Amino acid sequence: MSVQRTDRLNSLLREVITEVIKKDVRNPYVSEMTTVTRVDITKDLRHAKVYVSIMGTGAEKEDTLQALRSAAGFIAVNSSQKVVMRFFPELTFVLDDSVDRQMRIESLLREIEDEKSTRSEESDDNDESSSE
């Protein structure tokens, strides 16, 4: 199967699975702040990793991930009704922490910029006092 077709199928599955999680899954442990970031389907179309980003505490993330894993069959059945495929893939949910890592990196970069500006202000103050 071509890479372009696989990419289109991954994108379609991401949209359909997102819709099923938002509209059909009624588990109270599934956080409202759950986003399907990407789907990677295997070449044989039998398995798909579903990467989800979950906003919240560590316990909320773990509870949501467990709830999604236990509802994987339900999600697959409902999704298969919206996507015509000979075999619908078995879904495996994986936590995508790339958003958390990106926020941490941006925070560190801000701290570095703040430190640089503080140091340059101090050196400017020292230059002014030594010239007097």
From TrEMBL:
User: Which GO MF terms are attached to this record?
Assistant: ribosomal small subunit binding
Keywords carried by this UniProt record: Cytoplasm, Ribosome biogenesis
Identify the GO cellular component terms for this protein: cytosol
Per the similarity annotation, which family is this? Belongs to the RbfA family.
Query: How would you summarize the oligomeric state and partners of this protein?
Result: Monomer. Binds 30S ribosomal subunits, but not 50S ribosomal subunits or 70S ribosomes.
Q: HAMAP family of this UniProt entry?
A: RbfA
For this protein, the record's PANTHER family field holds: RIBOSOME-BINDING FACTOR A, CHLOROPLASTIC-RELATED (PTHR33515)
What name does the UniProt record give this protein? Ribosome-binding factor A
Originating organism: Parachlamydia acanthamoebae (strain UV7)
